Amino acid sequence: MERFQDKVVLITGGGSGLGRATALQIAKEGATLVLVDLNKEGLEESKKEILTETPEATVELIEANVAKEEEVKNYVDTTVNKFGKIDGFFNNAGIEGKQNLTEDYSIDEFQRVVDINLNGVFYGMKYVLKVMKKQGSGSIVNTASVGGIRGVGNQSGYAASKHGVVGLTKNSGIEYGQYGVSIKAIAPGAIMTPMVEGSLKQLGGENWEEAGKEFVSVNPMKRFGKPEEVGYLAAFLLSNQADFINATVIPIDGGQSYKY
């Protein structure tokens, strides 16, 4: 299939994890890619992997901090100036933050997590939606989390920010569906990405792999998800095949959130 032939897709957090996995998938299907990340080395590695698998792919890289509005506006403007449109937007960049009880969670850390995970998603939507509304078409996929549909102990900033992403998704989907724009969120569970590995190391230190076994024990499938499994879902949701899916959040967690 070439669902993304002649399509321009913008991906934040494109330097690793879910962003890279999604980029690898949709490049094979013809997408012109614009990858955004603060990590220059990660971006270069993503481009290298993409071109190794899909030598004919077009891949543009933009270094940006999604927590800074002016840098978000710049990556949107740069994409439109170069390619004339944005067909798909995987609004994916995020961090977990440090773990602590709410009473011990520092205000600075809370603000940092919210700035990246929630404000960054809002800034991206704000500027991309202007483009898509004018086009009369487009698809936005926001990365929330199971932490956006249920509580996550010791992660106040993360849970609050991801709940906010779900709210923004539903609200904006209601507003922009009439303009031919569909907006949805995904809620990954325990997916083995660098961010999740970092979380496990916070919990278990040198024994982080054992902590990982406990981490997935609440999952009916008793395993971590793979980044490419999320990439397959994100690719579908970004494609025209999912245009009628709007203003909703879709878990991809092996059943972890089934109680909620």
Automatic annotation (TrEMBL):
<feature type="domain" description="Ketoreductase">
    <location>
        <begin position="7"/>
        <end position="189"/>
    </location>
</feature>
<dbReference type="InterPro" id="IPR057326">
    <property type="entry name" value="KR_dom"/>
</dbReference>
<keyword id="KW-0520">NAD</keyword>
<dbReference type="GO" id="GO:0047936">
    <property type="term" value="F:glucose 1-dehydrogenase [NAD(P)+] activity"/>
</dbReference>
<protein>
    <submittedName>
        <fullName>Glucose 1-dehydrogenase</fullName>
        <ecNumber>1.1.1.47</ecNumber>
    </submittedName>
</protein>
<dbReference type="InterPro" id="IPR036291">
    <property type="entry name" value="NAD(P)-bd_dom_sf"/>
</dbReference>
<comment type="similarity">
    <text>Belongs to the short-chain dehydrogenases/reductases (SDR) family.</text>
</comment>
<dbReference type="InterPro" id="IPR002347">
    <property type="entry name" value="SDR_fam"/>
</dbReference>
<dbReference type="Pfam" id="PF13561">
    <property type="entry name" value="adh_short_C2"/>
</dbReference>
<keyword id="KW-0560">Oxidoreductase</keyword>
